[in-house]
Amino acid sequence: MLKGDFPLKSFEGVRTPFYCYDLQLLGRTLDRLQSILTANPDYRLHYAVKANFNPRILSIIASRGFGADCVSGGEINAALAAGFSPDGIVFAGVGKSDEEILLGLRKGISRFNVESEAELRVISELAVSLGTKARVSLRVNPDIGAHTHANITTGLAENKFGISYEQLENVLQLALNLEGIEFKGLHFHIGSQILDMADFVALCNRINRLRSDLEAKGLPTGDINVGGGLGIDYMHPNHKDIADFEGWFGTFSKFLDRRPGVQLHFEPGRSIVGPCGTLISRVLYVKEGTGKRFAIIDGSMTELVRPAMYKAYHRVENLSSEGPETVYDVVGPVCESSDVFAVATTLNECHRGDLIAIRSAGAYGESMASGYNCHPLPESLFI
Ligand code: LLP
Predict the structure, then answer these.
(1) Domain of 339?
(2) What domain count does the chain have?
(3) Which of 72, 169, 176, 239 suits 233 as a labelling partner, its CA being 20 to 30 A distant?
(4) 117 & 228 share domain
(5) How many angstroms separate the CA atoms of 240 and 270, rounded?
(6) Which of 274, 308, 330 represents a domain boundary (last residue)?
(7) Which of 87-96, 111-120, 152-161, 300-309 has the least mean pLDDT?
(8) Which atom of ligand 1 is closest in space to residue 193's alpha carbon?
(9) What is the pTM of this model?
(10) Which of 226, 251, 274 is the last residue of a domain?
(11) Do 139 and 268 fall within a single domain?
(12) Is the CB of 75 under 6 A from ligand 1?
């Protein structure tokens, strides 16, 4: 959405900071995904709920018939409340509690993505106690470094996620033999905000080799879940507002060896909801610092932690001003020196009360908001 397209009139009277979601863009994004999935009947898409679990956003995604990738009992409940079918819910995470596992079993979710032998045994015991079987995929640590921020790579051997290659064969044998387990496939995820398709090609190559090795030993591999991770263009939200889904799905269809009857699962989060969200905030003060000028806004790391946590870039725009371009550090009110949205960024001249847009904040924005400094959680507005 271009700067001039934000409906400033409908923002009047809304307490800032708040999240503004462009539902037209979300709709266009989902249309694009739906057409890819329709053309590929063996693809399954599970939206990564952690990216944004705003109930309205969730129900819009659920209404398209997609599945949900959840990482807690809370997310499973949020997904069910939004209308996702239990049969489309997959449950990942290295530390699933007994209570969460029991919830998943009772609701009849479609997959537990299991991350260790110890977890596999507990899930089996709990399933037996309920007289059922848990449908399980084994999450493999692919030992692939994605070219992204160190805090959001998940597929390296040193990361806590997944089962290592060395242990995989034994854990797979166990999964085939435990009474409460129905083995369904293998799960992978290499990281997030990945724009270089070569990282996904590397993942395909790993999966191909691993599958051939296991099959040569007479072991099944089942459905393949390649996780999420497709990045978005934070620099140019106005020019490229839909992620490169064709490139992403196309990479897997080109480089991953396919087997008839085998499903291919995807778990995108950021690429679906990132572009459609904007954090709207107000200028409280303009302050001259030593050698710099600060635009102090009422939004902070409590509404959008990504810049403070990962030094992530989000484009900042002054929606209220056409004044001369001026350089500012855009900062929030929180008592942490990392509470900074942008350093030496150019904005139309700022005045107290101007509305500031922090773009591409639909993923890992509202869902990571906190109440630090007794800040209330942000409201959301849909346009
Ligand atoms: N599947 C699994 C197993 C995951 O761990 C994740 C994200 C996804 C799918 C979805 O990945 P996406 O398509 O959104 O990249 N808070 C960080 C991102 C953390 C991602 C964690 N896992 C950020 O703000 O950049």
Answers:
(1) 3-18+275-382
(2) 2
(3) 72
(4) yes
(5) 14
(6) 274
(7) 152-161
(8) 15
(9) 0.97
(10) 274
(11) yes
(12) no
